Amino acid sequence: MNDQETVPDPLLARLGAHRALGTAPAGEHRWLATHGTPRVFQVGDVVTAKGQQAAAMMIVFAGHLVIRTDRGAGMHKVFEWRAGDVGGVMPYSRGASPPNDVVAEETTEILSIPRSLLPAVVRECPAITAMLVHSMLDRARQFTTSNLRDEKLVSLGKLAAGLAHELNNPASAVVRGAKLLTESLDASEGATRLLGAAHLSEEQLSAIDALRSICRNTAPAPTLSAVGRADREEEIAAWLAGHGGDERCAGPLAQTEVTIAALEALAAVVGGEALDVTLTWIAAGCNVRALSAEIEIAAGRISDLVGAVKGFTYMDHARLPELVDIRQGIVDTLTMLGAKTRAKSADLVLTLDEGLPSVVAVGGELNQVWMNLIDNALDAAPDRGRVEVTASAELGHVVVRITDN
Fold first, then answer.
1. Dihedrals φ, ψ of 324, to 5°?
2. Residue 228, Cβ density class (10 Å: 0-12 exposed, 13-18 middle, ≥19 buried)
3. Sign of CA dihedral 267, 270, 273, 277
4. pTM of the model
5. What are the pLDDT digits (tens) for 130-146?
6. Alpha-carbon distance 325 to 309, whole Å?
């Protein structure tokens, strides 16, 4: 079609009503209508394939074109064009290819201006060219916003997964400990009633108190291996079997500093059924204390993790620049990545200068930087690899280095 050919009035009317280009001079509308080609895409048609540059500028009159992609946070829309928008290649654009197929999700009507005519558009349609430059800037901002949102969603997913993994073990320990604690309390109450009915003498009560005071000291040998602890439990179980006691008491007693000599001293004063009741009562008390200590440790771990999350996200702070403790931010970030570090059996070396000065920053966003960098370093490092994180004050600045092998 050349400039002299008749242009259908409906096409000129559509250009005049177009949201982005409608205010351009009528002569420029006529030039576009003369050199463009009306096209219609049906639902599901691929307008521009992933990885390919757009072949034309697309002035959208009706319908809906969409780019959807999955960047680790699930398939979602990253960009769209509706009636009144301009898509495809534009004057002065770098001609980047879309991150995924551009697909028509409704019957879509466009005016297609071939890429080869863009220099002529700049020359013949200056007002429209200026409008298109503004559209390009808006499109770039939208793509940037979409990318940032995707990065935040991916990061949030990693954070949630890591936190769930970190919380699972202590939370399970609390549930398990609470259930066993109830059982141990029932056993202790039953043994207490039987002990009260035994009418023990002062000498016997004194001997019981002596053994009980020894048993209050839990974790007799933290350096014992699993085999050493099993041997100790078997030794106590054998002694209980030889004195008519319940062998199930061996486990709780083995977790204390009780010795065979101490048990012999008790057996010399308390014998028969009273000995079995006494040992059951003492073992139940040992179990209650051990379980309480486990629950306290697990609950403390949960509290520490929640504190790390609050510190990492600055959830109780406004998103404004403020004095930020770099050391604490990095420590909180490493806590969030603890599960991934252990999964890769990575050796993570942390070196933070004492007296590191605070910096003015948005704390949550700065921690996001540490999260991305350390997470990338863990991805790059091999299994059983090494990641070093250092922070130091240098020439009036705080310098953070994250290095993987």
1. -120, 135
2. exposed
3. negative
4. 0.49
5. 888 888 777 767 666 66
6. 15
